[in-house]
Specification:
Order of helices and strands: HHEHHHHEH
GO molecular function: oxysterol binding; protein sequestering activity
Shape: globular
Strand content: under 5%
Subcellular location: Endoplasmic reticulum membrane
Number of helices: 7
Keywords: Cholesterol metabolism, Endoplasmic reticulum, Lipid metabolism, Lipid-binding, Membrane, Steroid metabolism, Sterol metabolism, Transmembrane, Transmembrane helix
Main location: endoplasmic reticulum
Membrane topology: Multi-pass membrane protein
């Protein structure tokens, strides 16, 4: 009988021990769930990423506006300086009623050229990204400044050099423009965009001259000079290089997953 009572007492103690350890096991399991990243932690992670996404969107938008402003100012300034040279050499003639006192140029020339520069400068890196071929050839500001100097020289040559006819001048400027692209760009996107810009800008210029907004002396390509597409091509490549350089270090555009 004593043996039976002792056995009964030991079994009841073991049962009570098992019941006492169950709350501890539950707490242990809850801790393991929390440490392994339960649903609450996942939802908290999504909430933490939301402010970061909004911040990256804001930074990307701010950087885009800054690039647009810089390109607009550069395009407007270059238009004033280069157009002044054309007016002084009597290559471009504006009616007296539209001539402003600032740099002896029409008031609408700087805003139009600045807007065009902003569009072209933003378009070049965008096309590079779309094609998956980021431009890596001569990516430094020293190269960009040399490209600007060559473009100014090409524009200066169009007004200063005297050739027997416009065809010789046009061929010379075409060779210089292709040399500018080969020296500072060498990308298929740069060549294609440069040709497209030259074509579209030439059509717009033909339309403006046809409607009497301004005119060119000695036109030999319908209403304009035959070398003007070369100026537009080299200008597009130059502004494109400026836009590409400004786009370096741009924050990546956020995607909505």
């Amino acid at each position: 009988m004593p043996r039976l009572e002792s056995c009964t007492w030991s079994c009841s103690c073991a049962a009570r021990g098992r019941h006492k350890t169950q709350p501890g096991d539950a707490a242990t399991k809850a801790g393991e769930m929390l440490s392994s990243g339960g649903p609450s932690q996942v939802s908290a992670g999504h909430g933490a990423r939301s402010p970061g996404g909004a911040g990256s969107t804001l930074n990307w938008s701010r950087h885009l506006v800054q690039r647009s402003v810089v390109l607009f100012v550069v395009g407007a300034f270059m238009a004033l300086v280069l157009n002044l040279l054309q007016v002084q050499r009597n290559v471009t003639l504006f009616p007296e009623e539209v001539i402003a006192t600032l740099f002896s140029s029409a008031w609408w020339v700087p805003p139009c050229c600045g807007t065009a520069a902003a569009v072209v400068g933003l378009l070049y890196p965008c096309i590079d990204s779309h094609l998956g071929e980021p431009h890596k050839f001569k990516r430094e500001w020293a190269s960009v400044m040399r490209c600007i100097a060559v473009f100014v020289g090409i524009n200066h040559a169009s007004a200063k050099l005297d050739f027997a006819n416009n065809v010789q001048l046009s061929l010379t400027l075409a060779a210089l423009s292709l040399g500018l692209w080969w020296t500072f760009d060498r990308s298929r996107s740069g060549l294609g965009l440069g040709i497209t810009i030259a074509f579209v800008a030439t059509l717009i210029t033909q339309f403006l001259v046809y409607n009497g907004v301004y005119q060119y002396t000695s036109p030999d390509f319908l209403y304009i000079r035959s070398w003007l597409p070369c100026i537009f091509f080299s200008g597009g490549v130059t502004v494109g290089n400026i836009g590409r350089q400004l786009a370096m270090g741009i924050p990546e555009k956020p995607h909505n997953d």
